């Protein structure tokens, strides 16, 4: 199967920025060369969250890798700057955010800080338990 992305403009955004919305259709070039006949499914914006999407049903466990491959191939072949920006935005959504680790101010152990109101925590949970008697 020879999968490619067919990117079509859906419409214009309501604001004055002139940004476009695009629909990303996955097509199989082995079926046919014209668009409506070779349609497989739509590429969802958030692949990992929606388990019942047709894209995840078709590609299963390798859906994220297949989406990255389709988007990078479309990025290389596309000439329009707005479409390229839309593809790059979709690629950023597929890349996971690295966990931010900080060192504890007391013991120096690295931990995921979390947030307390608008400030990051500076002490690891063990040091907080020692210092404040188990209160976070």
Structure description:
This protein is an alpha+beta fold. It has two domains: 3-94, no CATH class; 102-132, no CATH class. 32% of the residues lie in helices and 23% in strands. It is built from four helices and seven strands. Strands 1-2-3 form a three-stranded antiparallel β-sheet. A two-stranded antiparallel sheet has the order 4-5. Strand 4 (102-103) and strand 5 form a beta hairpin. Helix 2 (63-77) packs antiparallel against helix 3. The longest helix has 15 residues, at 63-77. The model has no long low-confidence stretch (mean pLDDT 81).
Distance between the termini: 54 Å
Number of helices: 4
Strand order of the largest sheet: 1-2-3
What is the average of the pLDDT values? 81
Number of strands: 7
What gross morphology would you assign? elongated
| Helix and strand pattern | EEEHHHEEEEH
Assembly form of the protein:
single chain
Outline the low-pLDDT stretches.
none
Helix and strand composition category: alpha+beta
Percent range for β-strand residues: 15-25%
Question: What Rg is obtained from the alpha carbons, in whole angstroms?
Answer: 22 Å
The share of residues in helices is 25-40%
What's the main sheet like? 3 strands, antiparallel
Overall tally of structural domains: 2
């Amino acid at each position: 199967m020879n999968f490619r992305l067919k990117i079509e403009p859906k419409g214009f955004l309501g604001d004055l920025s002139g940004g476009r919305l695009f629909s990303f259709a996955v097509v199989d070039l082995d079926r046919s060369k014209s668009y409506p006949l070779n349609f497989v499914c739509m590429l969802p914006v958030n692949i990992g969250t929606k388990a019942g999407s047709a894209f995840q049903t078709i590609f299963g466990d390798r859906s994220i890798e297949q989406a990255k491959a389709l988007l990078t191939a479309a990025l290389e072949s596309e000439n329009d700057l707005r479409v390229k920006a839309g593809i790059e935005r979709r690629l950023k959504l597929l890349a996971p955010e690295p966990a931010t680790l900080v060192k504890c101010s007391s013991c120096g152990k690295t931990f995921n800080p979390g947030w307390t109101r608008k400030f990051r925590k500076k002490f690891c949970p063990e040091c907080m338990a020692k210092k404040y008697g188990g209160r976070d």
